[in-house]
UniProtKB/TrEMBL annotation:
One Pfam assignment: Ribosomal_S21
Segments traversing the membrane: none
Gene: rpsU
Region (Disordered): 34-63
DNA damage is among the record's keywords: no
Composition bias, Basic residues: 35-63
HAMAP family given in the database record: Ribosomal_bS21 (MF_00358)
Superkingdom as given in the UniProt entry: Bacteria
Protein name: Small ribosomal subunit protein bS21
Stored NCBIfam families: S21p
Family according to the record: Belongs to the bacterial ribosomal protein bS21 family.
Entry keyword set: Ribonucleoprotein, Ribosomal protein
Amino acid sequence: MPLCQIIVNPDRPFEVAVKQFSRSVQNAGILAEARRRRHYETPQARRKRKAEAQRRRQKRSRF
């Protein structure tokens, strides 16, 4: 699991640190992975999801 860590500057407001932390969590994909792991996904469903994502990527790259 990726680690998100920020260094808080005492001179800056707390809200800035929270926003910076939220951005780093979003970029690391932690929330997306937690949502994905919330329920068990069968191997068949995983293959289907990955194949569909691959088709979308290929469709976008053609244009």
